[in-house]
Amino acid sequence: MTEVHGSDESDRSTDEPIPDVRHEIFSVTRVLQADRATVFGAFADDLIRRRWVRLPGSGATYDHVFRVGGGEDATSTFVLPDGSEERLRNRSRYLDIVSDRRIVFVYEAIVNAVTRWVSLVTVTFEDADGGGTTLIWTEQVAFLTRTGDGSADLPHLRTGTTLRLNGLSAAIGGSGS
């Protein structure tokens, strides 16, 4: 799934250090006031999905197939405060889908044709105490290209995931905690 973007590895000078890969893992838990079928359905139904899964920027395109072996290819253009543009691309592939129970997928985050990170994501859906659904999003990420010294990369990704799950809650009309 990962492609070489930019220069070929053979073009690298032997004096140039090859950047290291940094691995991280995090989980975000939400209790949603909707049943598991409704929460799970928000991942599969494109009309609902577009309300909470969006790339920042303008001109976004999405090609989504919700099945094992399917996935999503999404692109957009983001304008930075200095007026420069970033071309964003997110490619994913579903590895495992168990209706109303779990979704496992991998994805690549690509900025200006450079793969920034790749992740394995497991989303589980459980009945919550007192009703509703407990959703647990666990992400195992490999940062391939750092932003600056890399110290903001994990907080940036975790915050983006948190905001996305806040959007999920709003999209299905269930409060999340």
- Strand arrangement within the widest β-sheet reads 1-7-6-5-4-3-2
Q: Radius of gyration from the CA trace?
A: 17 Å
Strand content: 35-45%
Separation of termini?
Answer: 34 Å
Q: In which range does the helix fraction lie?
A: 10-25%
Q: Provide the residue-averaged pLDDT.
A: 88
* Coarse shape: globular
In short:
With 177 residues, the chain is of the alpha+beta class. The chain is built from three helices and seven strands, in the order βααββββββα.
General description of the model:
With 177 residues, this protein is an alpha+beta fold. It is 20% helix and 43% strand. It contains 3 helices and 7 strands. The chain has helices at residues 36-44, 46-52, 153-172, and strands spanning 22-32, 58-64, 71-79, 85-98, 102-111, 114-127, 133-143. Strands 1-7-6-5-4-3-2 form a 7-stranded antiparallel β-sheet. Helix 1 packs across helix 2 and helix 2 (46-52) crosses helix 3 (153-172). The chain is globular, with a radius of gyration of 17 Å. The protein starts with 21 loop residues before the first strand and ends in a 5-residue tail after the last helix.
